[in-house]
Amino acid sequence: MISPTKKIAIIDYGAGNLHSVMAALKRIAHEDSLLLTSKASDLQNTSHIILPGVGAFADCMNGLCALKGMREELNKQVLENKIPFLGICVGMQMMLEYGYEHGKHQGLGWIKGSVRSMDSKNGKLKIPHMGWNNLLLDNPQHPLLKNIHEGEHAYFVHSYHAICENPQEVIASTEHGEKITAIIAQDNLYGTQFHPEKSQKLGDKILTNFLNI
After folding, report:
1. DSSP class of residue 193?
2. pLDDT at 109
3. Is position 142 annotated as part of the catalytic site?
4. What's domain 8-211's architecture?
5. Cβ(98)–Cβ(106) under 8 Å?
6. Which residue of the set 60, 73, 89, 158 is catalytic?
7. Backbone angle region of 14, left / alpha / beta, with phi > 0 → left and psi within -120 to 50 → alpha
């Protein structure tokens, strides 16, 4: 069980699978440590910040930016104060510079790169990429991958994928017609394309590792 001294903020901006995320976190952390919030001021004095995401890139960015002061406070806490941050699914995609779902849209710009549509290989591959797929560990020694083994399965639901300019920021990937980014990491920034809250034991290990950073 994660130490009760942790203060974990989960951002509610109307676009996350919050019930499942909270349920997963309650399995590994004290409930009193968890704060589901849409208030920017609540990010102050946190030990960890989690940004879930479900839906279209632009809608999620608009929802996040509609929260008064939230984007500015995120930049302060994550970029300046180096608070560990985890983006989940679209929450991870929003960490990049641009998303190209229904036009070009600005992301948070923390990770150099963009979010592009997946290639169906002329209809031969099912898009969205939905269901269980195995992880390929690009950097198995990374702390976020502690006790994670090559080939373990995670649960994906997405039609767009993150393309990072710096391949070293991709610490795990998967295959769906091409190599797909599964986990990114840069300093105190972390993101999973899959849903750890739906990935059973693997997901619990990822969340535990993140909260122990």
Report:
1. S
2. 98
3. no
4. 3-Layer(aba) Sandwich (3.40)
5. yes
6. 89
7. left
Domain ranges of the chain: 8-211
Catalytic residue from among 105, 129, 158, 195: 195
pLDDT tens across 42-69, in order? 999 999 999 999 999 999 999 999 999 9
As a whole number of angstroms, the distance between CA 151 and CA 200 comes to: 15
Residue 95 in contact with residue 52, Cβ under 8 Å? Answer: no
pTM: 0.97
Helix boundaries (H) for 29-173: 57-65, 70-74, 90-93
Determine whether 197 is an active site residue: yes
Distances from the Cα of 159 to the Cαs of 6, 111, 182, in angstroms?
34, 20, 13
Q: Are 196 and 185 in contact (CB under 8 A)?
A: no
118-156 pLDDT, tens digit per residue, is 988 877 889 999 999 999 999 999 999 999 999 999 999
The answer to whether residues 211 and 2 touch, using CB atoms and an 8 Å cutoff, is yes
For residue 125 the two structure tokens come to 């591959």
- Residue 60 is a catalytic residue: no
